[in-house]
Amino acid sequence: MAEIRVLLVDDDPLVRAALSHFLGREPDTVVVAEAEDGRDALDQVGRHRPDVVVMDVRMPRMDGIDATAQIAERWPDVRVLAVTTFDTVDTVLPMLHAGASGYLLKDSPAGEIVEGVRRVHEGTTSLSPRIASMLIEHVRERDHRAPRAARSLEPLTDRESDVLRCLARGMSNAEIAAELLVSEGSVKAYLGRIMTKWGVRDRVQIIVAAARAGLIAFQ
Questions:
Q1: Average pLDDT over residues 148-160
Q2: Alpha-helical runs (H) found in 76-172
Q3: What is the pLDDT of residue 58?
Q4: pLDDT of 109 higher than 50
Q5: Most distant pair of Cα atoms in the chain: their distance
Q6: Left if phi > 0, otherwise alpha if psi is -120 to 50, otherwise beta: which for 214?
Q7: Contact 127/105 with Cβ under 8 angstroms?
Q8: Is 30:5 a contact under the CB 8 Å cutoff?
Q9: From the CB of residue 97, how many other CB atoms can be counted at a distance below 10 Å?
Q10: Are 78 and 33 in contact, with CB atoms under 8 Å apart?
Q11: pLDDT tens digit string along 179-192?
Q12: Any idea which of 8-12, 63-67, 205-209, 214-218 has the lowest mean pLDDT?
């Protein structure tokens, strides 16, 4: 089984030590390097090319938002999972827009953070329930004032709608495939078609667009 190579980025050495301990116990994850801020993170990504970067948001010299944006541009195959204490719209949305594939809070159980690393590595999304609820509430409040015509989306097929409902439940590609009795390749194809129809680039934006249109709610 191939190991998931992880870079830990946090200005608190105790947080890095705790995350390294949790991830080091898992047979499928290995911490290849650590960094204390965003600038150091860019150096370490260039040197080690990790699969997943576990990224704090507020750090000196360069914050996690700027670092994530540069990683997404320079190394698009490297996934970023935000793990932080900040749960407000003005930190969550910029981090997701910068290219983070997930957003977890530091008070999440250790197992949830480990699973979040696995999810973003396989190309899925990992959001803390509190973050998911806040994100959807923000979208609804913002779009309550928008004209309904702006919220229309190209209709999905029945199977694409099934995939969307599974996605809203936080399921991985493998879980969706098992639920719908199709291959993971088919799930990826359906997700790709939804992205193309709606003009979005990732799973997080699929969920946001669907919530904006009133098609789904997080479960």
A1: 74
A2: 89-98, 110-121, 129-144, 158-168
A3: 92
A4: yes
A5: 51
A6: left
A7: no
A8: yes
A9: 14
A10: no
A11: 999 998 888 889 88
A12: 214-218
How confident is the prediction for the chain on average, in pLDDT?
A: 85
Asked if 126 and 81 touch (Cβ cutoff 8 Å), the reply is: yes
> Locate tokens 């078609």: which residue?
193
pTM beyond cutoff 0.90? no
Single-letter amino acid code for the residue at 66: D
What phi and psi values does residue 26 have, to the nearest 5 degrees?
A: -90, 140
| Extents of the domains making up the chain | 4-134, 147-212
Considering the domain 147-212 in this protein, what is its CATH number? Answer: 1.10.10.10
Rounded distance between C-alpha atoms, residue 26 and residue 23, angstroms: 6
CA angle, 192 then 195 then 199, to 5°: 145
Are 4-134 and 147-212 equal in CATH topology? no
Structure tokens at 206: 């699929």
Task: Spell out the CATH class of 4-134.
Answer: alpha beta
